[in-house]
Design a protein that fits this description.
The protein is mainly beta and about 110 residues long. The chain has no helices and seven strands. It has a four-stranded antiparallel β-sheet, with no helix packed on it.
């Protein structure tokens, strides 16, 4: 398997969701903008619609593996600043300057 970019929007919509296949399992990723914090949050739902996680999107930090929940994706999600400045995404940056990548479990260091 290979690292993949998770599709996100750059049109300023402040809440949306995408369905993704991660390590062979279906998940819904919901993104919402918190105007008070000027930050994006990620919610992860399993195929049945059960909420598994809510997490602030922070560049360079693992978004899922720090949690012990076997229902979460088996690999890891990271937000990467493509400019190398390591700045968290603003309202229209997620999907442009900052991309969300998924590294499958098979490609993670042991």
């Amino acid at each position: 398997m290979a690292t993949s970019i998770v599709p996100t929007r750059t049109d300023g919509k402040q809440r949306y969701s995408v369905r993704v296949l991660l390590d062979g399992l279906n998940f819904t990723l919901e993104f919402f903008w918190n105007p008070r914090e000027l930050a994006w949050y990620l919610l992860i739902y399993d195929a049945s619609g059960n909420q598994l996680l809510i997490r602030k999107v922070v560049v360079g930090q693992p978004l899922t593996q720090i949690f012990v929940n076997p229902a979460l994706p088996r690999g890891e999600l990271f937000a990467i600043d493509t400019t190398g400045k390591d700045q968290d995404p603003g309202l229209t940056d997620l999907g442009s300057r900052v991309v969300l990548i998924y590294i499958p479990k098979a490609d993670l260091p042991k």
